[in-house]
Amino acid sequence: MKKSNLKLKINEITGDYEVIHNGFSWISDGRKPYIIIRKKAGKKYVSTYRPLYSALKKSFTYTADSIITTFSGYIAFGKMYDFKIILTAKITGNDTCEFSIKAENEIGYDIQAVYFPAPFNSKKKGSYSYHIDPMRQGFILPDGYKNNFISTFAYTKYLRKLNTGDAYLPLWGRVCDGHTFSAIIETPYDACMFSSFGRHKAFVNSVHFSSSLGKLSYERKIRFIFHEKGDYNTVAKDYRNYLIETNQFVTLDDKISKNPNIKNIIGAPVLHHKIYSKINEKSNFYDKNGINEILYATFYERAKQLEKFKELGLERLYIHTDGWGKNGYDNDHPYILPPCEAAGGYAGLKTLADTSRKLGYVFALHDQYRDYYYSSPVFDESKAVTKIDGSHPYCSIWDGGEHTFLCSSFAIDYVKRTYDELAKHNIDVQGAYLDVFSIMQGDECFNESHKISREESIEARSKCFDYLNEKGFVMSSEEPGFALTNHIALVHHGPFHARPLENGEPVGIPIPFQNLVFHDCLIVPWNRFNNWGIPKGEDGDVYCALCAGMPYLHPFGTGMSKIGTDNRTADTELLSDNDLIKEFSRIKPLCDLQSRLYNKEMVKHEFIGSYKIQKATYSDGTTVTIDLNNNTYKVN
Known about the structure:
Elements lengths: L1 E2 L2 E5 L6 E5 L2 E5 L5 E8 L2 E8 L5 E6 L3 E7 L2 E2 L2 E2 L3 E8 L4 E9 L6 E5 L4 E3 L6 E5 L5 E4 L6 H6 L5 E2 L9 E6 L2 E7 L5 E8 L3 E9 L9 E8 L4 H14 L6 H7 L11 E5 L1 E3 L14 E3 L3 H13 L6 E5 L22 H15 L2 E6 L3 E3 L29 E3 L5 H14 L6 E4 L19 H16 L4 E4 L12 E2 L6 E2 L5 E2 L2 E2 L2 H6 L6 E2 L13 H7 L3 E2 L8 E4 L2 E4 L7 H21 L4 E6 L5 E6 L4 E5 L4 E4 L1
Helix pairs in contact: 4-5, 6-7
């Protein structure tokens, strides 16, 4: 069974595969494939796991380039099920193969999920082997790596949903002495990473495919690309090339050609500031003995502060405005008008927006169309996400207290309502940040009157971004998940993963994996506050330079204040004029670098002698070398 550089084999007794690439073997390892079967029990559903290979009937079909396995006769809950499972392993090119799984004869909501194929690992133990992971910005994990082991062990115990902080990209890879494979999940919207430990003390990975609206529904596919010589750069570029080949790749220059206003944030730092916060009694942050309400500044006071920035020489600025609605930050969504009266209401918000425009700054609003607060004046439970059992999600963590999730099919209606009303009051909004949309898996909804799949939910979110993009808004969201990258210009942050996230120990060895794919497609700010997402002892500005990103401006210093039970930045009093000038001097070379490289591909990242010395090379030949021992960077 050979085509070009690949051979496929299967053990019909165990179901284990072997993929041989130019004589080098990758074999099934780690967690065994499974199927989760469910049934309705009263108003709820119950489920049980079965080995995928536990079907009573199995058949194998071999062709010149494929192995097709058919399973039927699964038994669970005292009955035999009628559906069939078809597994296909197929050579698709000189160095590529595809593994897929589909169901036939699905009658009810019997299949909750499947895990296939088993992870692949090298048959032989290499002298240097590692896993490549898309958790947040990305990391590599050498076999037997012991640092922060509790975290990596934990990742083998839960499902990591794609398009979340657990997996920005639908992609992973593995390297053994240069032999490399890239695994691209071609059907990513109903998928989760699920990792395990395998031979050679390796951390290995594969995919848990969830049902879509109750059924497996469609064929799920993973593309594997093999190389004799490669590394994590190779894996990132395989995915980038895949996106280009399948017309899913949109650069910042492409976005600017459709919305020239995006150009106004190139070379600008980002200011994240708050106006008003009020913590609801039902919120997890509420402190019955503490302060639960703070007005950080009026709109007029903020406008004066912006004028001070200009007076002291800050030419460009992107302004991310939190807590501008009636009851402040994270309250009353999806409709939060009128603007906070204590801060100045519509007149005050207009002054802040107009002042920003006059100064040449880009004024943007933090907004939300997923969290659906019970306190919202537009709350209607019939529009909430409905789960398979008819119930609704519930959360009470955030400031606004109790809420569920709005079905994405209604989000565009509230976007239009909000921004039409702001326009009627002549509020000159230049940008909008639609919170969480970019970093949450789609929300499937079973309500028959607005039933949508997870993929359709993502499409509904994209319409919200596109609607405002077409009006010239600079669009952003929280983190750089793959699913909506093509519809936004920037994110709030895209850090490395650490435990804890603030000033914590890194998970694995951090690499700019997301930037290797999308640097010239999306602006990623760095150094938000308190080393959030930056390994302990290292400087976020240094990583900002490495990734030619957008720096955060800290004009209020780095102090924290407590509201409820939560510590947050104290966005009230400005630094002294001298300290502001120093702050502007800190960000200027980073802004200049971002302006120079925003539309250049990061073609390569490498470690120079140790993990503490790193170099990124861009498509115009520019190199940025960082020294994390001394927290310095050099641009050539």
